[in-house]
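Protein Record: Sequence and Backbone Structure Tokens
======================================================
Tokens: labelled as protein backbone structure tokens, with as many entries as the chain has residues.
Task: work out the structure tokens from the sequence, keeping to the layout shown below.
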Amino acid sequence: MVMEDLTNVQLTNSDRKYVSDGLKAIKLTFLKDPQEMSTATQYAPDMVYQHFGDEETIFGYEDLDVTLHHTAQTLFAYTNISYSGKFKGDKGLEADDINEKLVHADVRANVLCSGKGEFQQKLIKQKEFKPYGEMIHKFQSKGKTFEVYKVTEQSESFNLFLERIQTLGMFYIECCSLTDNTEENWLHYFIYELCDSGEGDGKTLPVVAGYATLYKFYNYFDKRRPRIAQMLLLPQYRKSGIGAQFMESFLRDLRASPEVFDVTVEAPGDAFTFLRDYVDCINCMALPEFSPENLKKGYTETMRNAALNKLKISKTQSRRVYEILRYRVTNKSIKEELKNQRVDVKRRLYAPMKRSDRDWKRLNLALTADELKQAACGAMDEETKFSTLSQTYDRLMEAYQRTIDRIEAHPSIF
């Protein structure tokens, strides 16, 4: 019986010591050489539900500790599992096979090393690794050097490398899955930190810092609409500004392509939305169409076209960027100015409350997924509509203020 079924099993108090919180038991490391195995910084995953079920618990071990070591350049893995006791009950249960659950059988041979010796050989051999694809940007950040590569190839070697990093992504990206890279419309970007080789020869090694995967959808008549399906920064590079710099690097490459109509996102989470808002706002602030004077006059087709043609930002996102930037330049101490801003946003939010079902497809172009949940408001009385509208506006301004705070703290991406 698998762990997901334990909710229907009566465990005794003595049995419960064999239930471990997967988020606490599992740690990940990223190593450049064998000497780091015992000293490397360990990072907790954000999620393990794809591995151990919705409860994210591991059954069958007491005092469980799982260290999932990775080669920092090539992302091969080795699991070091320790525990003080193993379940030997008779309830039709058996201890989880941790290696089996950590990596799907279809890719396990590519990802997991058979033992410590093989993993150590992978650590030594990874020094020969060269990034796939074409370098499109190189930049310095806080004393470190990074390179961004674009990959369009479909070689067996690259496909296996992609498989390994996307398997790792399952610990950090909601609903992350492996992509079929044999489909030619997939496009990938990777970011590497150039680290000292440790050989005293001044050479550097490209260490994986993250990746982004996009799918190029067709758009009439000779254009493409790349959609960001996955974007991951490895845990050691988070909260350092690298995410915005990486995103801006590959967005610049996409903007330079005449075939790109705009760039969209597939089911973005809160953290990604925050990152995207910041990058788009910084870029739009440089456009004269988004000057403070123009922002206070309302959202216009001129703004929409400037964001689309110059920055490849979609209509829905450019409207959101406009609202964030207008809120930023609104003098909150002037009641009339704040009122005008509030009415402007609420007018957009109120649209689903007064439209018929026939309008939903059109509204999808103007509203975010959360805002579309207000569909039920069509049957509300006016007092309830007013209350719901006010609450939605307040939550939205809280999110906008978070982006504004980041803009004030970091007014440029590079």
Q: What stands out?
A: Residues 335-401 form one domain. The first helix runs from residue 22 to 25. Residues 1-5 have pLDDT under 50 and may be disordered. The chain has three domains: 3-127, 130-329, 335-401.
